[in-house]
Amino acid sequence: MNYKLTADNVQVWYSDFHALKNISIRIRPNTVTAFIGPSGCGKSTFLRLINRMNDYIDGFRMDGHILIDEKNIYAKRVRVEELRKEVGMVFQKPNPFPKSIFENVVYGLRIRGVNDKHILEEACENSLRQAALWDEVKDDLKKSALAISGGQQQRLCIARTLAVKPSIILMDEPASALDPISTAKIEELISQLKQNYTIIIVTHNMQQAARISDRTAFFYLGELIEFDTTVNIFTAPKEDKTQSYITGRFG
Amino acid sequence: MLAIFLINIIVDGIARIDWAFITNLPSRKAENAGIFTALMGTVWILVLTAIIAIPIGVAAGIYLEEYGKKSRLANILEINITNLAGIPSIIYGILGLEVFVRTAGLGSSLLSGALTLSLLILPIIIVSTREAIKAVPKTIKEASFALGASKWQTISRQILPAAGGGIVTGVILSLSRAIGETAPLIVVGALTYVPFAPSSPMDQYSVLPMQIFNWISRPEPEFATNAAAAIIILLLITFVMNGIAIYLRNKWQKKVKW
């Protein structure tokens, strides 16, 4: 079976700080992978390597390879704009643009020169449907995206990501700023999106990881301690550190 | 204090303001004298300064905030740009005299004056542009990048629209400072008496503060009344510009709420 994403011996430094040490991981398509671990363990850093969002940080340096569909995404000829079409990202706090709902969804298309009204409208409806938001906002597409609730904003951000048709979606604690009902909606959405996308999610919420992911990776102090099926990680972890983390003895 | 001064000026000058006062040319007789040439000079200076200073200042602000590499040299430059805003304006006048009037051979023209005032307000525009850009949340930038937008797309489609209110406010406030300046224009050769309104950037000119300065220095009390009236006009222009700046800022703030 092919892997969607392969990381080999990835190391990251921020100036002198060794943030990631020898991470190797293989992720299959159409799965949900959860990254767990205490704050500062490197899970978000690793997530942001996949769409090269660390490139802007001063003092960032990396070593090793990350391949998506067998292609090295850090190769010289790779254009980050193209990579980010393939790898979408949803952030911790909902961050819609201060524009209308419609313009938020089609932003990724507009910056690629798509201005045909019919194409944009169709993409908008499809993406909002996929993000389970269409029925709630279909009559208010012209309304400011800042006027809807936080949970709706986060689903709008997911819709916006889906509109450019990525194959991988990275989620950095997407539900941590939301109430339980909105969180449940996001989780349900993730399990639906799995059919068409490969999803990698960073979460601090262990129950959430257990509920929605197929495989779980436990990071600690910049190292990948254990990576296995979610069932194994939560019921029969091989490493002591994983055991003590999931039972809440530290972190 | 300021209020008493203002009331005093308004009492002195308000009766003197009529249409003729605005459209009349300067004259040796106080009752015939008007501010037309000075007002036109001020308008010319305002427009030329805006044309020169806004593109350079805003572009420099964007460059420094978004493209410039963080280095020691950049830090030193940054501190100095902020310091430039505090330099006495007459120093800019002397610089303008040497560079524009003499070396560049522009003479004591509107263009020299506008270039000199542009130097004076550039630091203000640069600093306020940078502040406005800094106030745009990082999360918006990240969201745009994550959707595959290039740096310029992110700047032009997200950062500038969101920072627009702050930038426009800074620009208007700096321009309203420019039209009130007298010292640098004295040095680069604005005249106190011009019989005709300027018709090209290379013409000689006067501006309202120069006209006021000229009238105040006359011994006849009628000219003092004229000066008071001209001060009211100048203050009105400045108030209106500041009012527009405040209006735009509030409007933008309402539109963009994080």
Structural commentary:
The complex is a heterodimer of chains A (251) and B (258). Chain A has 251 residues and is an alpha/beta fold. Chain A has one domain: P-loop containing nucleotide triphosphate hydrolases (Rossmann fold). Helix content of chain A is 36%, strand content 25%. Chain A has 10 helices and 10 strands. In chain A, the strands form 2 sheets. Chain A has a 6-stranded mixed β-sheet with strand order 6-7-8-3-9-10, with helices on both faces. Chain A has a 4-stranded antiparallel β-sheet with strand order 2-1-4-5, covered by helices on one side. In chain A, β7 (168-172), α7 (180-193) and β8 (198-202) form a beta-alpha-beta unit. The mean pLDDT of chain A is 93. Chain B has 258 residues and is mainly alpha-helical. Chain B has a single domain, classed as MetI-like (MetI-like fold, Orthogonal Bundle). Chain B is built from 11 helices and no strands. Chain B is elongated and about 70 Å long. The model of chain B has no long low-confidence stretch (mean pLDDT 89). The A-B interface holds A 51, 53, 56, 58, 80-85, 88-89, 91, 93, 95-98, 107-108, 110-112, 146, 157, 160-161, 164 and B 70, 137, 139-140, 142-150, 153, 157-158, 161-162, 255-258.
